Amino acid sequence: MTILDTETEPPAPSSPARRAAFLAVAVGLTGVLAYLALILGAWGFDYRRYSQHNERLRRLLAHKPSIDQVVGGLHAEGSLLVASPEGEAALLAEAARRGGARAAEVIEKGRRFSLTRVFIAGDMVYFVYFDEAGIMRDFTCVSR
Predict the structure, then answer these.
(1) What are phi and psi of 48, to 5 degrees?
(2) What phi, psi does 143 have (nearest 5°)?
(3) Rounded to the nearest 5 degrees, what angle is found at the Cα of 63, between the Cα atoms of 57 and 66?
(4) pLDDT of residue 77
(5) Strand order in 115-121's β-sheet?
(6) Whole-model pTM?
């Protein structure tokens, strides 16, 4: 068989409709995979961000700081004290305003402890709870 052998025919080109279908499937599959990659990336970033803030507050809680130490320390790091709800009505309003998906947790912990302070720390909201002696006892971290 030689290169110029005329008895063998080259394969017929695929029909335009078949090529368009393969292209559409390839583009659709690529889009789905890109979407999944973005969703997983966003989830990973959010998980990491939340766990860093949560661990920051957990380490702070281990020292059992006073309210003045917490307010001063967070202020020095750039976290602003934005609310000091006094009474149940103020706590409910603050939980509704900034508690997001964790509003029920904010209300439950706020009722259990005497004092609540609310801080904005970057893209997170910290609800920090203190006992009647002004010692930090718990916290709730909420994404803004």
Answers:
(1) -65, -45
(2) -75, 140
(3) 90
(4) 92
(5) 80-83, 115-121, 124-130, 136-143
(6) 0.74
Give the model confidence (pLDDT) of 99-124 as tens digits: 999 999 999 999 999 999 999 998 99
Evaluate whether 85 touches 110 at the Cβ level (below 8 Å).
Answer: yes
The alpha carbon of residue 56 and the mean position of all alpha carbons in its chain are separated, in whole angstroms, by: 15
Lookup result for tokens 């004290």: 81
Q: Which of 52, 58, 40, 20 is nearest to 122 (CA)?
A: 52
Domain residues of the chain, as ranges? 17-143
* Tokens found for residue 119: 């801080």
Among the residues of 5-129, which ranges form H helices? Answer: 16-62, 67-76, 88-98, 103-112
Residue listed under structure tokens 């309003």: 93
